Amino acid sequence: MGGPGDSVRDVLAGNLRRARLELGLSLSELSRRSKIGKATLSQLEAGAGNPTIETVFSLSRALEVPISDLLDHQEPSGLTVVRGADVEVLRGEGVDLRPLRGIESGGAIFEVYDQQVRADSRQDSLGHVGTEHTIVQAGRLGVRVDDRDVELGPGDYVSFDARLPHTYTALGGPVRSVLLLQYRSDQRLHATPAEPPHLVETP
User: Which burial class, exposed, middle or buried, applies to 40 when counting CB atoms under 10 A from its CB (0-12, 13-18, 19+)?
Assistant: First the structure.
């Protein structure tokens, strides 16, 4: 799984099922925790769904795992070049995310994303595990975290506990930014390719 030719849909399908089984959750329980319909979850696990930013963040929150555990970032060595045009876009109500790289070092995991907030759009999140860092490159970005509001311009940076409800709003035009999600290594789901023996389905 997670080879270069795999789509976000295919990678999420395998990782979601393995994460759910490793945590011992039924589809019904995951549906309750994530507030995603059981039928939709079943489609996602079958690779037939259409995952959005909202869906992936809800699953990250419900399973309490980094997003990279669901999207399966690779760890190449040496020189790493990622062409934006070659990365599949994960779309949300107001944001386009391109996952570029996952980095694990010194007990911390960082996920690097190219983030674009569409003009006159906003992206709401109920919160998810980790710490969120955003650096604005172009445009003006409104950020609301819990009940606090800040406005950022090119070169500005914001960081906050991603478990808090937060919103990104493009002010007056599109916004281009770099998003980094930071986790502790112990927040990672240590899934193995094989399912635990007691969870293997028999005919």
Answer: middle
Contact status, residue 91 vs residue 56, Cβ threshold 8 Å: no
Three-state secondary structure call for residue 151: strand
- What is the predicted pLDDT for the residue at 187? 63
The 3-state DSSP class for residue 142 equals: strand
Phi, psi of 123 (to 5 degrees): -125, 120
Read off the pTM: 0.64
Position 191 pLDDT exceeds 50: no
What percent of the chain is predicted at pLDDT more than 70?
A: 85
Cα-Cα-Cα-Cα dihedral sign, residues 18, 24, 27, 29: negative
DSSP β-bridge partners for residue 98: 114
- Closest-CA residue to 65 (of 27, 101, 26, 33): 33
pLDDT digits 0-9 by tens, 83-114? 888 888 889 999 999 988 888 777 788 889 99
Which residues does 143 contact at the CB level (< 8 Å), separation at least 6?
Answer: 134, 149, 150, 151, 152, 158, 166, 167, 168, 169
Half-sphere exposure (CA, 13 Å, Cβ side) for 91?
Answer: 4
Return the closest-CA partner of residue 122 out of 171, 156, 176.
171
